[in-house]
Amino acid sequence: MNQPEIDEEFIVKSLVEPGPYGYRPRDRPILFYLDNGIINLDKPRGPTSHTVTKLVKKILEYPGKIGHCGTLDPKVSGVLPIVLGNTTKLSRIVAGSDKEYVGVLYVHGDVDQEDLENALEKFTGPIFQRPPVKSAVKRTLRVRRVYSIDLLESEGRFHLLKVHVESGTYIRKLFFDIGEYLGVGGSMRELRRIRSGIFNEKNSVTLQQLYEAYQEWKRSGDESELRNVVLPLEVAIKGIPKIIIKDSAVASVTYGASLKVKGVSSLSKNIEKGKMVAIMTLKGELVAIGRSKMSSDEIVSADEGIVADIDRVIMPRDLYPPMWKPRRGDE
Within the chain, how many helices (H) and strands (E) appear? Predict the structure, then answer.
């Protein structure tokens, strides 16, 4: 049995083999591969996130849509996922993941170590933030969660912090508020994003590496390095529970039809009713993002009914042909 290219445990509901349609994500033809690609880019300090995205488009001579997930200020470096083509449909999911940063907090007066550690503890948990004046979002007071703040080292008034936060948390504002709480003022002097969701700095690539990989493919036809620096979009939904569907159900889902029980082949063990699910082919391709109408146990025991409604179709239509009989509507 050919299993999808995803590293999770699945419950098999209906054992079926994949047909001749579609591609395993890493085996897509190179141009189609790029149209379904995501880059774990290490953004340098200096340019804006928008400028870096335009540079990627130029480097790859890419004619389609391109975008970035989770804006970094010009002076901030680190992980900036870049989405190509179809993957732009996943931008909100990728950008909405939790983040980790390493940054330098400079306090404007002398502070005891114990007072600093108490302040960091005070700012761990839910906090109120108002976006800065130059931000692209409405400046309304909102709650964001700080999962942890670790003091890595200190030298005089400079303190190196590692921060794990909910998406949408402004680190510059967080450092400023810590300084205000300490009564001496504070500011952010350096910042680097070391993780965005599943993407981390250890596996990130530079603009130079991307350029060299693309030029190698143009010069010699060797796609291997280009396929290493550009990842298939399926890596972006690694943490989302999955429903694997039969080939006969793929076309109807790409046209927005709800997924029915008879179209299910296997599924993750942790599906909850009303929660987000990724709908996948037997080859491990992402078809759509949906909202489950049953739990895992309910799907396994059901003989009929709707398993999930579709929120966003990702796969292009007609990659898999219609295989259902309209009068019966089995899938």
Answer: 9, 17
CA separation for the pair 227, 6 (Å, rounded): 18
CB 193 within 8 A of CB 79: yes
For 82-110, the pLDDT digits (tens) are 999 999 999 999 999 999 999 999 999 99
Neighbours of 65 (CB within 10 A): 15
So what's the architecture of 36-95+200-233 in CATH? Answer: 2-Layer Sandwich (3.30)
- Which of 1, 2, 5 lies closest to 285, judged by CA? 5
Q: Say whether 73 is catalytic.
A: yes
Catalytic position from the list 7, 27, 35, 73: 73
- The CA-based angle 114-106-138, given to 5 degrees, is 110
Q: Which two tokens stand for residue 256?
A: 């927005």
Beta bridge partners of 278: 242, 289
Cβ-contact 271, 296 below 8 angstroms: yes
Contact predicate 246/331, CB 8 Å: yes
Return mean pLDDT, the chain. 93
C-beta of residue 245 within 8 angstroms of C-beta of residue 287: yes
pLDDT in tens, 32-82: 999 999 999 999 999 999 999 999 999 999 999 999 999 999 999 999 999
116 token code pair? 């600093």
Superfamily of domain 10-24+240-313: PUA domain (2.30.130.10)
**Residue type, position 168, single letter:** G
The two structure tokens encoding residue 20: 């001749």
Domain residues of the chain, as ranges? 10-24+240-313, 36-95+200-233, 99-196
Fold adopted by 99-196? Alpha-Beta Plaits (3.30.70)
